[in-house]
Design goal:
Helix content is 48%, strand content 13%. The chain has 211 residues and is of the alpha/beta class. It has a five-stranded parallel beta sheet, with helices on both faces. Strand 1, helix 2 and strand 2 form a beta-alpha-beta unit.
Length: 211
């Protein structure tokens, strides 16, 4: 009976969030085949993941980086306000070399690209559960070179709309927000990209890969 109790305590409780149903299904299958892990819940986006944080108790969160409604960065920033947040591993197919740096900056515990073998994700979960941080090598002396890494999900949406030639009024209608809110987000967007107008923002968007 004591042995069973010890095994139960050793089980790692996990919640997974990813925009792709296929990815979610794959991770669920991977975790359910290994008795060291207990899948508590899944979520399709960052907002639902935060709802799970409020409602459930779990050890590790495996989340995507580019998610609808709230990105991986947004999740990490929101969790900085939590007293006892789960440890977060970002599992992403976005190949931008600056993302691991951003994950570390905003309090993530691990990073695992989707191009790695599935066993690497499990090894990352085990290491993070033991209190370790798992990241690829990063030259921290070099400045960040990804101009999009600091954008919120809403700012990313606006930038994509600008690239499609949408006017401020059209963007407001598309996103169900006010025209003043669009202007507010655009002002912040231009500041983060260090550009002066929408033409320069679109040029930056089109000329930079990995967004």
């Amino acid at each position: 009976m004591n042995t069973d109790a010890n095994q139960q305590r050793a089980t790692i409780d996990i919640v997974v969030a990813d925009k792709s149903p296929l990815v979610l299904s794959g991770i669920v299958q991977l975790l359910e085949q290994d008795e060291r892990f207990h899948l508590v819940a899944t979520a399709a986006d960052g907002e639902r993941f935060l709802e799970a944080v409020e409602r459930l108790s779990f050890d590790i969160g495996i989340i995507g980086w580019n998610m609808p409604y709230l990105s991986g960065q947004g999740v990490l920033q929101a969790l900085q306000k939590s007293e006892k947040p789960p440890r977060i591993i970002v599992f992403t197919g976005n190949g931008s070399p600056d993302i691991p740096r951003q994950v570390m900056r905003f309090g993530g515990a691990g990073f695992c690209p989707k191009t790695d073998h599935p066993s690497v994700l499990l090894e990352t979960v085990l290491a993070v559960a033991e209190g370790r941080m798992v990241f690829p090598f990063m030259d921290m002396s070099r400045p960040s070179n990804d101009p999009f890494s600091g954008l919120t999900s809403r700012e990313q949406e606006l930038l994509a709309s600008l690239a499609l030639g949408r006017t401020n009024q059209q963007i407001a209608g598309d996103l169900s927000i006010s025209l003043n809110t669009v202007k507010f987000h655009l002002k912040n967007l231009y500041g983060k990209l260090d550009v002066k107008n929408r033409a320069q923002a679109v040029a930056c968007y089109l000329n930079t890969s990995g967004f």
